[in-house]
Every structure is written in structure tokens, then in C-alpha cells.
Amino acid sequence: MAARLPILVDDNLRYLKSYQVFLDNSSEHQSVKAFINGPLAEILASIGKGKTALRVMGVGSGSGENDLEILRQLHLQHPGAKVDYEVVEPSGDMLQKYKDLVENTPDLDHVTFTWNKMKMSQFENDCKGRNLEKKMDFIHIIQALYYVEDSEATILFFKSLLEKNGKLLILLVSGEGSWAKLWKIYRPQFGKTDIRESTTMGDLRSLLDSRGIPYQKYELPSKMDITSCFTSGDEKGELLLDFLTQVQDFSKNASPDLRAGVLDLLRGPDCSQEVDGRIMFNNNIEALLISP
């Protein structure tokens, strides 16, 4: 039996480095920003209509860039409203970056932040333990549902926190995208990671359909330049491979056959296209909007 590969999230510093390289080489944040200032703006205008105070929650908010973009759009749609903003994020490093970002961002006097340094499951248990009855006008879970044991129970819990006209926004990698293909084929060989079996929007849609839960679906096109992954020893390429596989030092710890197979798949037409000599990985994501 092959030795278990080490998990990327167990090395916090390397995880943060690999995540930053991912952001630097992908158009994901730009795609999410375009969605927030496009289709989501209309939706945000409809929530909490007539209210002077709004309750919002960001789950797995990372370093806060998407949250502040949502806050900016909320302020445009509800200029006179105060915002009670609950942040749930397990990484102390990410939470500190978020706090620093807030401190250096003007025009947030109307927002009161509550910081929860904990995983989603811990937050759920904490809410139940306190019999928390605070209802939310808007909750978003952006690229964070991969790390929960039971995605169905998690979605139903956060859905239960919505106000009558509230909305729950979930963003995940596309069920038809390259991430889904990579993980479907190689996840068992990557070993135990923090990413669960159901990792794509295709899995989530099937789950919601089976329960008869209606939703609105949006496509967010995104690409990632993975050219550096094919230059052996390239530091950024190695970090990107770590992020794609969620394995620490993937090139060093994976068998030669596993590394070769992953690189072949990543470079092939099922995952990527060559554009002007660059290997562009299909990083498409989907957004689902769920009502209470």
C-alpha cells in the first residue's frame, strides 16, 4: 500500500503561498467581482428592502476581498442602511489580513464586524449551543464548501438562518470544469485531504434537486495560467501543483507515475487550452442562489 501523501493544509505557510500563486495566475477574483457588480447587484437590491439595518454573513471569507466588494455593492443598493456583518473564517492568518484590509478601507463606518475564527461546523455548533436566533438577509459561502464533512447538512443549516426574503449564495468549481475532472480521476491517489468527496457544483445541484430545493444558477468563466507547472523545479509551478492537488510538495512526494499522469491530464484538452504559448486551465466556477 502506497504511503499517504501529506496534506497541503497541514503546512499553513505553504498553503498560503500556494493560494496566493493561484490568485496571481487565475482570473477568479475578477470573475467573482464582475458577478458581484453584475447579476448579484440586482439581487442585493431586492433583499432587506425598506430596512434601515441589514444582517450579512460571509462564511469561509478568507482575506476579505470578495466580502468588501459585496459590502460596497450593498451600500450602493441600500445607501442609508447599517450593516451587521458576521465573518466566519478558520485561518488566523487570513482573518488578520481581512482585519488589516478593513482598517485600510474608507467608508465602512456603517458596518459592524463580528469575527468568528472557526470552521463552519464549529460555528454551527456554537450557534446551536447559544440558541442563536439571529436571522440573516444575505449569506455567502464562496469556494469554501469543499472542507465540510456533510455539505447537505451545512447548506440546510445556513439556509435556516435566512430571513423571509433573504438569500444564500454558494460558489463552487463547475461540475463540468477541469477541477472536477482532475479530482474525479486522481482524488483517491492524492490520499486523505481536507477536500471532501463532493467537491463540485454538479454534486451540489444533484443534492438540491433531490430535495426539491429551487435555486438560480449562474456561470462565471475563469482561466488559470498553469504553464509554470510544466517546468520542473519552477517554484511557482510547484506551488500551483500543490494547490491543484492539495498535497504538500506534490512533485517530491507523489510517485513519478502519479506526477506524470496528473501533468498529462492538466495539459490535455480535457483540462486546458494552449493560447499564445501559455497553458490555460479551465477554472470556471458556478454560483447558486438559494431562497429560504
Helix content: 40-55%
The CATH architecture? 3-Layer(aba) Sandwich
Q: Helix-strand pattern, N to C?
A: HHHEHEHEHEHEHHEEHHHEEE
Helix count equals 12
Topology-level CATH name: Rossmann fold
Q: How would you write the strand order of the largest sheet?
A: 3-2-1-4-5-10-6
Number of strands: 10
Kindly give the count of domains.
1
Model regions low in confidence, pLDDT < 50 over at least 5 residues: none
The major beta sheet can be summarized as: 7 strands, mixed
Mean pLDDT: 88
Straight-line N-to-C gap:
47 Å
> What Rg, in angstroms, do the CA atoms define?
19 Å
CATH class: Alpha Beta
Shape: globular
State the fourth-level CATH superfamily: Vaccinia Virus protein VP39
Derived structural class: alpha/beta
Strand content: 15-25%
Protein name: Histamine N-methyltransferase
Keywords: Methyltransferase, S-adenosyl-L-methionine, Transferase
GO molecular function: N-methyltransferase activity
Binding site for substrate: 28, 283
